[in-house]
Design a protein that fits this description.
Blueprint: E1 5-9, E2 23-28, E3 33-37, E4 47-52, E5 60-64, E6 67-71, E7 79-80, E8 94-99, E9 107-111, E10 116-119, E11 127-129, E12 145-152, E13 155-164, E14 167-171, E15 179-180, H1 183-188, H2 205-208, E16 210-216, E17 219-227, E18 230-234, E19 242-243, E20 254-260, E21 268-273, E22 281-286, E23 294-295, E24 306-311, E25 319-323, E26 328-331, E27 339-340, E28 350-355
Antiparallel strand pairs: 1-2, 1-28, 2-3, 4-5, 5-6, 6-7, 8-9, 9-10, 10-11, 12-13, 13-14, 14-15, 16-17, 17-18, 18-19, 20-21, 21-22, 22-23, 24-25, 25-26, 26-27
Amino acid sequence: MTYSVFVGAGQWVGVVDDERAQGLFGFDADQGVWQPISDGLPDNLEVRYIAVRPDRPQTVYAGTHEGPYVSEDGGENWRALPLPDGTPAEERVVWSICLDPNDPETIYVGTQGTAVFRSRDGGADWQRLAIDPPEGTLKANFPMRVIRIAVASHDPDQILVAFEIGGLVRSYDGGQSWESCNGTLLQMTEQEHLKSAIVSDNEIEGMMDSHALALSPGHPDTVWLANRMGLFRSDDNGTDWSEFGIGRFSPLTYARDVRVSDHQPDRMYAALSVAAMSDAGSLYRSDDFGATWQRFDHGVSIDSTLMVVAESVSSPDRVYCAARRGQVFGTEDGGKSWQTYQLPDGVQGVYALACA
C-alpha cells in the first residue's frame, strides 16, 4: 500500500539504549493504522528526516544512519542513493534533506558534522560541498550536525544551512563559497534572557542551537530561524537578526520547527515546547507571515516536546505534527478536527515527519 503520512525515529540522549527509538513508519488516514517500513532499508534503521517530492508525491526520500534512500512507489519499496565512495561513516548519518524548489531533481542532504552533499540528477551522483564551521561553533555532548537546509525559490544559487550547534551559513554562488550568518546572533547573547548553557560551558550555546529555518517565495529576503531561545527573523537574507518574541502569543517558546506552507506563502507553522525533553508541546499557525500566531492544534494534549510539523504537499487541509515520545496528531480538514495516532510498540525518539 502507499501512505499519506511518514514518521521517522532515531536514537536520542533520553533513550539512547532503548531499541524502540528508531525506525520508519507509514500511515494512511483511511486505514488508521501505522505500518513499519523496512523493505530495502538498512537494518537497525534510524531516520531523522523525510521529504516528499511536491510534483511527484509517490517519491519519498528518507535520511538514514547509512545515507539517503528513496521510494518511488509511495513508501512500499526503497533503494539507497549512495554518497561518494570514501565518505566517512559519520558523514553518512543524514540529518536533513532539501529538494530545490527550482528543480526537484536537485537534492541536498546534510549530515553529521558540517557536510552537505548535492545531487543534480535525483540522487544518482553526489558532490560534497565544503563548509568550514562558522564562528560560534561549539563542542557539545553530541556531534554537530546539519539540521536544516533551504534553497531560495527565486535564486537556486542562494543556499542557507543551519547547524546544531553552530548557527547558520549562507552561499550566494551555489555552494562554492560560504559565509557566516552568526554575527548578530552572537551579539544578541549579551542579553541575559538569550544566554543558555546546557551541553557546554558557553552561554552563546542557546543561540547557536539551530533547529529549523524557513524561506517563503512571497518574501524573498526574509529568513525565519527556530532555535532553543525562540523564533528569530532576518529581513536581509541572514545578515541581521531580530528576536520575534513568540512569547507574546505562546506560553511555550522553545522552538523546534518552523515551516512555510507550500500552498499559501504567507501561512506558517511553528512547533513550540518547554525544552528539548519536556512534558508539553503546542502547534501554532500564522496566516500573515508571522505577524500574529494562534494555537492550531485545538483540543490536543501533547505530553512531550513537539519536534516537527508537516503540511501535505497535495492538500493544505492535511497537517500533522509529531512529539518526541511517539504521539502523532493530524487534521485532514484544515484544523477543524484533530486525531491522535500513537506510534506502535512504544516507539519514541521522533525526529522526522512528512505528508504526501
